Description:
The chain has about 325 residues and is α+β, with helices and mostly antiparallel strands. It has helices at about 25-30, 35-45, 75-80, 100-115, 200-225, 245-250, 290; strands at about 1-5, 10-20, 50-55, 85-95, 120, 125-130, 175-180, 190-195, 230-235, 240, 265-270, 275-280. Helix 5 (about 200-225) packs across helix 6 (about 245-250).
Amino acid sequence: MIAFPVPATTTSRFAVAAERIPHDLPGLLRGAGGPYAAHIAGRLGSPHLEVVREDDAGLRWDPARITAPRPEDRRRERAFRDAPEFAVVTACAPITDQPRAVQVARAAALHLAAETGGVPADLVTGHILTPPADERTRFVLADQWLGDALPPFRANGRCTAPDPDRDPEGLNGCSCVRLRTRGLRRFGLPELQIGDVACPHDLAALNVLRTAARRLLTDHWSWLSTGPADRTRAIDAVLSLAESDFSDFWGTARRVHLVPPNPFQIRLTLLTPRLLAVAPPDDITGTVNDWLCGDTLPLGMYDVLHSPADPPHPQAA
């Protein structure tokens, strides 16, 4: 078993960068429509939904640290970094108010972006938010909540191992990839990390993190629903993951079939109270790359980078 503290409240922040940000941001938000309009109006001005206008001379955060996970969004990344004015939306809410609190805050930020022609970003993940800019009413972890981006292949040329295409047997040709989620903390969970991964196996490692995050979040909300008296949670160090966890990450109504569909296990280690390491279970011999390339993981883990089914933003209650 491993144990970690669960905060009573968490804070999420979103920013909108534009050439001009109006001074009356609350008034702009009161005109919001859509499924979150009533939530925005009811929370506005409270710690659950605060909005402030800032300029680049007085920022307490660095726009240069905000990146675009997709190459096609690099132009928007530059526009965000170069913008002279910003609107910052903050949600400080009880952990039991998640995920609705962060969905409302992000919906408010997306409305401001639409009204100002600005570029929205998630300051927790450090990523530009990618259009389409509608906040669906059903929570889906794959909707840019994890900061789950792959690093540049071959470490942008810094990896010195042989090219995988020329060394197909070199499963452990390098260990330069380390992946870490950025976003679970807003739901009261530690972030997840997997390291010592070889370049060719980065997608499989990423999908292991995604599947584990979805399973942990599902179990976490079930635990919170029991109204625990303390704020320390203990979980099994060995976690079994199933095909349904992978499908639930994507939020698709159609199951994402994995071959083989058998469950697989991971081992969690508490690195810090806010960070869990993901590794193969104890009965797996060899390195993490031997595990990622073995016959334990379903084949679909190696193929799916983006949502494999359903429209990106179905309006489901």
